[in-house]
Amino acid sequence: MNILIVSVGKLKEKYLKQGIEEYIKRLSSYAKVEIIEVPDEKAPENLSDADMVIVKEKEGERILGKISDDTYVIALAIDGKMHSSESLAKRMDQLATYGNSKVAFVIGGSLGLSDSVMKRADETLSFSKMTFPHQLMRLILVEQIYRAFRINRNEPYHK
């Protein structure tokens, strides 16, 4: 399976980079994982609703430019479908079994994802009703992808 994680913004925190690198190394025996960062759109703190849409659309164009037409897209969104680790593992296994060997997970910036990205998504995924920094979401996501592969292969993993 080829897994692409497209995320808005540059990851600066060393501890997050180290955690992500560790899980990608562990995942290398199960799948090819690539993380692509697209630049976030610079914007002032107090944006109008119209300006927020413009910022998200610009980021969305950058995201969509990194995803090929034959890729199955899962957008991370607060109102997406929630899974247990076991049901996410089952979903990943279903995707691989039914010919979706290219899967992209998309993490938006601080304002979320544009309508165009949400329309392109084949499904949405939520990790919680809580809001997490998008940088931290990368680490959580790669850990859960790793956990999914371990579950699917009946290999031991911390519960």
Automatic annotation (TrEMBL):
Q: What is its main location?
A: cytoplasm
Q: Cross-referenced HAMAP family, in alphabetical order? A: 23SrRNA_methyltr_H
What is the role of the protein in this entry?
Specifically methylates the pseudouridine at position 1915 (m3Psi1915) in 23S rRNA.
Keyword list (alphabetical) reads: Cytoplasm, Methyltransferase, rRNA processing, S-adenosyl-L-methionine, Transferase
Catalytic activity, EC? 2.1.1.177
Q: Which GO terms describe its molecular function?
A: rRNA (pseudouridine-N3-)-methyltransferase activity
Q: What is this protein called?
A: Ribosomal RNA large subunit methyltransferase H
Q: Where does S-adenosyl-L-methionine bind?
A: L76, G108, F127, S128, K129, M130, T131, F132
Q: Which InterPro entries match?
A: Alpha/beta_knot_MTases (IPR029028), RlmH-like (IPR003742), tRNA_m1G_MTases_N (IPR029026)
**Keyword match Cytoplasm:** yes
GO cellular component assignments: cytoplasm
Q: Per its UniProt entry, which superkingdom is the organism in? A: Bacteria
